[in-house]
Amino acid sequence: MIPLSVLDLSFVTSATPPSRALANSIDLARHVDELGYERYWLAEHHSLPSVASSAPEILIGQIAAVTKNIRVGAGGVMLTNHAPLMVAERFKMLAALFPGRIDLGLGRAPGTDQVTAYALRRRLETRQGDDFLERLQELISWESRDFPENHPFRNVFAMPSDAPLPPIWLLGSSNYSSELAAMVGAGYAFAHHFSDFDGIAAMLSYRSKFKEGGWRDAPYGILTVAAVVAETDEEADRLASSWDLNWLRRRRGELLPYPSPSEALAFSYSADERARVKEHRSRLFVGSPETVARGLRAIAAATKADEMMITSPLFDHQARRRSYDLLATEWGLAKASQKQATHA
Predict the structure, then answer these.
(1) Would you write out the chain's pLDDT as a tens digit for each of its 344 residues?
(2) In a domain? residue 24
(3) Number of structural domains, the chain?
(4) Beta-strand pair 71-78/102-107
(5) pTM
(6) Domain presence at residue 243
(7) Assigned domain for 73 exists
(8) Is residue 261 part of a domain?
(9) Please, what's the b/e burial string for 224-251 (b: 16 or more CB within 10 A of its CB; e: otherwise)?
């Protein structure tokens, strides 16, 4: 049985303001920690009305402080938005406060639109083109201390200097990040929940090209998927209708809080929109615990995933808690089974 983990975007809904969404994230983290999930990652998005998670490192500290066993990390920090030294210091501080429980996932995209990305970086030194690899090398150098003898950063130290940089994971939705993660020997997480790229190809490429001697001794791939679990297939389908409408709105360029199932089911789709929504729905795992677990096991086997990370895009917070609860029990997480027996 491979581990299950959680990716949380702190969903803002038409009934849940951003501040409440953040509180819900802390509540959900406590819940899945008790169920036996492996890790809890927070996303970084900006100026998106349906997502409250804009500063994952702050939420990581809050969640790590109220949980006991689960690893907590960024899924991920968008490195193009930040000075590598700042990222190193923030995560070394988290590692010092919560030893052995912090992960650092890194993404290439800004996590927002071009105007907001410009606002995030306009006071920073900018370079033409994609400078992710350069930023990654600098971030690693703050830990390895391998700046050249005459480099201006050689006598600068990322503090706290006695705390290690947490394990680095590269996040991706294409083959680029899988090959880069393999090249530097880092962990890799593929975003199946929104990518149109073939996740099987990306995950297998990462594993086959992995080079030892980097951050890990062996490859470790996480497959991130969207899943909605309820007691029945029919109820899960109703709950997932919110995701359908939210996806369609974003495709239209309409950025709004996450809609309720009632709003989604009352929406007037054109025939073309229904066809597009149906095609996109095929990427989600929706249904009863048995239905979803069967689908997850199949894609885990095809991708040779070492771990499954679940994001559950649900309007109602209690339904989201229940979704993770049902999946944990069906998957056979030990703590979920113990909790169910206690409440029986």
Answers:
(1) 899 999 999 999 999 999 999 999 999 999 999 999 999 999 999 989 999 999 999 999 999 999 999 999 999 899 989 999 999 999 999 999 999 999 999 998 776 777 877 776 766 665 666 789 999 999 999 999 999 989 999 999 999 999 999 999 999 988 899 999 999 999 999 999 988 888 999 999 999 999 987 889 999 999 999 999 999 999 999 999 999 999 999 999 999 999 999 999 999 999 999 999 999 998 899 999 999 999 999 999 999 999 999 999 999 999 999 999 999 999 999 776 566 555 55
(2) yes
(3) 1
(4) parallel
(5) 0.93
(6) no
(7) yes
(8) no
(9) bbbbbbbeeeebbbbbbbbbbbbbbbee
